[in-house]
């Protein structure tokens, strides 16, 4: 029987059976609209409050600072558009980094077309943004700094606490896209001086199409979705109760297991890195130490990542590449080029992200399979023959 090995947990995760079990009755039995006054709706209202509390606890926020959305992209859009809209009287300048998720980058590019000025900060070769650079780019017109907590491609964890205290000192609002960090690394919005934080449930074994935005009490923000008075008048639309319950359960499990799971994944991650770096002409991308426990990103010389990934798919292994198909052409990742990789090197990169079901046996199998496939793909490659000799 062919093996199926999933190593793309940064793209999405499966829903844990305990999470799905908790969600199920909210589709069939407890279907009432939480805004209604009768008894079957009261239970739903309570379930929402309970889930909101679990999410708040996970990041040391207060319950009334958590607002449900339909995912990471909506949370990023709301944070950025909502803040600049409510604070445009104070200025029109946004600072962000060049390695953000497209939900942040494309939101900022959209705002550029509407008269806002955006600074996209460079990062160093490990993907870490420089505090001095942030400070230098602040002007009297800066109203928001948006910097991701951990990068989804190379796994680099940013100095969020330091960025937070700089923003607080300068009186500038600070948003962080923490979609890859929530459930994987400890987060404390108070200690880290975070004003807004985005998360997505399907990155920590909850359902897809479900997310939240933390908005610190007192922060002035406009709504993105106008309509009814749900989410205390800030985000309209009948609540996705099953999704909310699932997200609450998923975050509860993630927080409870964080220490042990992070140790287990870091160990497997380092085994994977060690094994893959034994392949000639390979190089690790990202920071060796400030790195998400489940992230591996490697460049192979003289290899087309797309072809390698397709060959691995043929062997039952699911991984991502360092490129994306945009407008029909294969474009190298903006993250890999931002850390200094050439277009070819970026296209020759593979992202392997491990998670809950990953075993040591899978890691060994994948190292072996990639080693053999890379060797085979290079057989008739003249460029590689020259580099090698
Ligand atoms: C997945 C991801 C998003 C988008 O989240 P969705 O729930 O898919 O909209 C945003 N930012 C980062 C860093 C991500 O990894």
TrEMBL record:
Chief localisation class: cytoplasm
Named cofactor requirement(s): pyridoxal 5'-phosphate
Domain Aminotransferase class V: 5-364
Broad EC category: transferase
Pathway annotation: Cofactor biosynthesis; iron-sulfur cluster biosynthesis
Gene Ontology molecular function: any one: cysteine desulfurase activity
Enzyme Commission designation: 2.8.1.7
Similarity comment: Belongs to the class-V pyridoxal-phosphate-dependent aminotransferase family. NifS/IscS subfamily.
Alphabetical list of HAMAP family matching this protein: Cys_desulf_IscS
Listed name of the protein: Cysteine desulfurase IscS
Organism of provenance: Clostridium ragsdalei P11
Gene: iscS_1
């Amino acid at each position: 029987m062919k093996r199926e090995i999933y190593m793309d947990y940064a793209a999405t995760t499966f829903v844990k059976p305990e999470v799905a079990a908790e969600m199920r009755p909210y589709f069939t039995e407890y279907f009432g609209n939480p805004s209604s006054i009768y008894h079957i709706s009261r239970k739903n209202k309570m379930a929402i409050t309970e889930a909101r509390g679990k999410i708040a606890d996970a990041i040391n926020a207060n319950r009334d600072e958590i607002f449900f959305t339909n995912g990471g992209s909506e949370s990023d859009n709301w944070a950025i558009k909502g803040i600049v809209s409510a604070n445009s009287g104070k200025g029109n300048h946004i600072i962000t980094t060049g390695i953000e998720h497209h939900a942040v980058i494309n939101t900022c590019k959209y705002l550029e077309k509407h008269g806002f000025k955006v600074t996209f900060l460079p990062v160093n070769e490990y993907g870490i943004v420089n505090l001095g650079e942030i400070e230098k780019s602040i002007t009297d017109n800066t109203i928001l700094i948006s910097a991701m907590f951990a990068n989804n491609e190379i796994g680099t964890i940013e100095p969020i606490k330091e960025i937070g205290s700089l923003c607080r000192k300068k009186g500038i609002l600070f948003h962080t896209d923490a979609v890859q960090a929530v459930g994987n690394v400890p987060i404390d919005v108070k200690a880290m001086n975070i004003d807004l934080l985005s998360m997505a449930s399907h990155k920590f074994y909850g359902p897809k199409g479900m997310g939240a935005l933390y908005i610190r009490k007192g922060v002035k923000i406009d709504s993105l979705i106008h309509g009814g008075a749900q989410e205390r008048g800030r985000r309209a639309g009948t609540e996705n109760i099953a999704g909310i319950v699932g997200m609450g359960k998923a975050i509860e499990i993630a927080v409870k297991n964080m220490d042990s799971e992070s140790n287990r994944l870091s160990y497997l991650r380092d085994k994977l890195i060690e094994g893959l770096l034994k392949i000639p002409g390979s190089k690790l991308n990202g920071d060796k130490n400030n790195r998400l426990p489940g992230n591996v990103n490697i460049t192979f010389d003289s290899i087309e990542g797309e072809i390698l990934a397709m060959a691995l798919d043929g062997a039952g292994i699911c991984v991502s590449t360092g490129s994306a198909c945009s407008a029909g052409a294969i474009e190298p990742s903006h993250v890999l080029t931002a850390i200094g990789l050439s277009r070819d090197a970026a296209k020759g990169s593979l992202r392997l992200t491990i998670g809950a079901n990953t075993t040591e046996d899978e890691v060994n199998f994948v190292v072996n399979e990639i080693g053999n496939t890379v060797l085979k793909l290079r057989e008739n490659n003249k460029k590689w023959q020259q580099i090698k000799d």
